[in-house]
Every structure is written in structure tokens, then in C-alpha cells.
Prior knowledge:
The structure holds 2 protein chains of 2 kinds. By secondary structure, chain A is mostly helical. Helix content of chain A is 81%, strand content 0%. The radius of gyration of chain A is 23 Å and the shape is elongated. By secondary structure, chain B is an alpha+beta fold. In chain B, 51% of the residues lie in helices and 21% in strands. Chain B is built from 10 helices and 9 strands. A 9-stranded antiparallel beta sheet of chain B has the order 1-2-3-4-9-8-5-7-6. The longest helix of chain B is centred in the first third of the chain and has 57 residues, at 4-60. Chain B is extended and about 90 Å long. Chains A and B meet through helix 1, helix 5 and helix 8 of A and helix 7 of B.
Amino acid sequence: xxxxxxSIIGFVLIMIVFIYNNLVGSRNSVENAFGSIDAMLKKRxxxxxxxxxxxxxxxxxxxxxxxxxxxxxxKAMSGTISTDEKVGLENQLSGMMRNVMVAxxxxxDLKASEQFSMLQRSWNExxxxxxxxxxxxxxxxxxxNNAIEKFPSNILAGxxxxxxxxxxxxxxxxxxxxxxxxxxxN
Amino acid sequence: xxxxxxxxxxxxxxxxxIMMEIEADRKKLMRKMKPFLIISLPFLITAIGGITYSIxxxxxxxxxxxxxVVGLTLLAGIGALLCTLLIGFIYWLFYRFSFSKKxxxxxxxxxxxxxxxxxxxxxxxxxxxxxxxxSQGDYQQSRIFVTNVDRYHSEDMVSGKLGSTAxxxxxxxxxxxxxxxxxxxxxxxxxKTIFKGILFAAxxxxxxxxxxxxxxxVAENLLGSIGTMFQKMNTARDPLIKLEDVEFExxxxxxxxxxxxxxxxxxxxxxxxxxxxxxxxxSINLSxxxxxxxxxxxxRANLNLFEPKIYSTLINxxxxxxxxxxxxxxxxxxxxxxxxxxxxxxx
Lengths: 186, 347
């Protein structure tokens, strides 16, 4: 009689350890994924000064926009702002840069410039990497949320205060990064 | 992309005349091989008939053992058998020193003239080398198959550049040796196929440093979340990655050294494209390693691509059109997976 009871208790204990570790692992991978978005954003920030310098020479009418871009970048990188603010700034900055890239259309000399073309490629790459990092974050969050809500791990999740995390909303404009491609092919 | 009608016209004007010539050679060879069969056939029939008749008679009644008719039939049977073996031996000598060389010459000409033209028809810049193939090193580097290979063969290499994308592919057959004990305790050797089909390698349009392998998802389809658990425990593979495309996730299991990079490579549009491509081929495996993409497309076990038939007529449009479909399918990957889009830093 003792052996079966002990083995049941043993099994339950192993399950608890397994589920607990899985929850912690999932939460850490969410944090890790969030960190990688930051890393990718940083990569894009690094491109901005160069890009602004290059286009400034050609773009006469977008001076204001470019100054704003530089300011926003400085603000976003300052590190004193909250995550929500940062996301807001980030969206603003992305939107502006997208406008700049569209405006390039009216400057054939700029479009033809080798240096700009390389920067534009790097820009596209950075955008794609940021989107990849966000998607990765979302899939980590989805797995974490699944673990929290599915039986039996939801019992442990409640005990150890694991809470649902929100997924990233991918802005509509970013979902259509095809536009960047089509303008590049022109 | 060339249409079926284009190919049909090309077949009539460019391929058929050459194939007629090769077919004439093949027929000439057959005319030399046939007499052996025709002469040996009566002997073989006599041998089988004589021996079985005499065995049957002696089995039926002990008395027949001394029957001279039965004895003579057996003798005739054995004689005929010896004659058959002798003809067989002479045939083997001919085959060894003459026919096999002629068969090789036919194959050589078929590949050099017909298949080569077909490859050029798909794209002028492509290069065909019948003897070469994707090397075993490349095969292993692709990490698509992790089973140890004991025997490896590859042939029919096509390589070249389609637009900005360098590609190469060949037929590949990899096998594993299995040792087992027969019921009598003897060691038996058996060869098990790991992969037979076409291995395609191309330059990918994005730069990356890690390794992402996309395999046909068997475990999850059969076992659901328990299958996923097994996949996570697979030590031969990198960590399992979950992607957001439901249809893609259903068809494939993705393992990668870097989850962000896996998402970067497998963009939503590429996942859709891979799912679409899979509909044309059935089960496929892919890997993305150091800015290259590898795709393994299995081919039916008894189908050896780009070979001429020796013992039946060469003039068979369906077979040739079938080879062409494979060529189109594989070279079409560049278009299907959008590999010529070069908007990132990789040129």
C-alpha cells in the first residue's frame, strides 16, 4: 500500500517541479525577447544620424522633418523615459522615417546615390529585424500566456503570481512593409 | 517561366531529332543482346520442364526411379540447364566487355545532349554536370538530416545564377547501414534510405549567421502537444521555435540557434510561400545556414531522374516532360520563395 502512494506523491512532485520550471523558463524567455527588441531598435537608432546626414544635402523641403527625427532619436535614446513613452516615440519616429523614405522619390539624385542606397538597404534590414524581434516577443508571450491559462499549470501560475502579458500590436503601417520594397524596385 | 506548350515545341524541334539518333543506337544494341535470350529460352524451358517432370514422377511412385524415360528426361533437363548456364556465361562476357560500355555510351549521350539541352532550355545560364553532385560535406552541413550516413551517392548537378541568386541542386541518395542477426544467428546487413531525392542549395537574400532548420512536422501532427514535448527534448536539434503562422506550424517544426533570427528569416510572407510551395511537392525539409538556404525534396523510391531507359523505348514524351517538370519546379524555387528580392544589405 505504501509503495503506490509514495510513487503517486513522487510523480506529483516531479510534475510540480516540471511545470514550475516551465513557467519560469517561459517568463524568462519573454523578458529575453523583450530585450532583443531593444537591441534591434538600438541598431536602427545607430543608422539615423548617417541617414539624416546623407539625405540632408539633397532634401531641401524636408529640413524640419529631419530635425524632428534627430530630436526624437535623442529623446528615445535618453533612457529616462518609461516603456509606454518609448513605444509612442518609437511609433512616431518610424512614421516620420517612412515619410522621409517616400519623399526620396522626388529626389532622383539622392535615389541614385550609392551611399543612400546602401543606407536604405540597412534601414530595411533593421526594420525587418525589429519586426522579427517583435514577432518573437509575441510568440514568447503567447507561449507564456498559454502556460498560465492551461490546466494544470494554471494552478501553479496562480500560486506564484504569474500574470498574463500583453502581446505587441504591430502597427498597420508596418504590416505593409511591401511599400518600402515597391519604392525600392522603381 | 516557360509553358508546357513551349516545352512541347522545344521537344519536337530540338530534342526529338537527337533522341531518334540515340534510340537507333539503343535498338542496335538490343538487336545484339536479343539473340542470347532467344537461343537460351528453349534450353531454359527444357531444363525446367525436364527436371520438374522427373522429380514429380519419382515423387509420385518409387518405381519410376528405375524408369529409363524418367532418367533420360532428367538427363536432358540437366543438359539443357548446363547449356543455359553456358549461354548465360557467354552473355555475361559480352555484357562485361562490350554491352555495358555501349549502355554507358547511350546514357552519356542522353545526358550530354538531351538533359543538357533541357537544362539550358530552362535557363541559358545554367550549367549541367551529370557526373557531379552535391557533396556529402554540403549535405551534412545543411543539417537537414542528422542521421549518420554510411553510403552516399549524388549525381546530375545543375548550377548557375538565376537573377541575383546563385543556385545548385543534384540528385542525392543517402543511406544508413543496419546490422542485424538473422534467426540462424548470422550477421545480416541491410541498407536503409535516409533521403532520396533532390537537394537544392541557394544563396539566401538576407544575411544571417546562425542555423535554422525547418523539418516536416510528424510528431506534432500525430501526437499534438505531447509531440511538441518530444520535439523540445530532441537533443540532436537546436531549440524548438514556435512561429505565428498556423498553417506553417502545422506542416513544419522549426529548430534554431537564435529565435529572433529564425523570425527574421521566416518572415510572414516567406512562411506563406513555403506552405504554397509544399503543396506542389509534398513533404519537404529546409534549412537556413550562414546566409544559404537548403531544400530537400524527396523523389519516389523507384524513380531515377534524368536517366534514359535502356530496355524500353527512349521516345517517351511523358517521361521527358516529367523530367522537365522537376527542372521547372526546382528552378522555380527562386521565384516561389522570392529569393531575387534584394532590398536588404545582401546583394
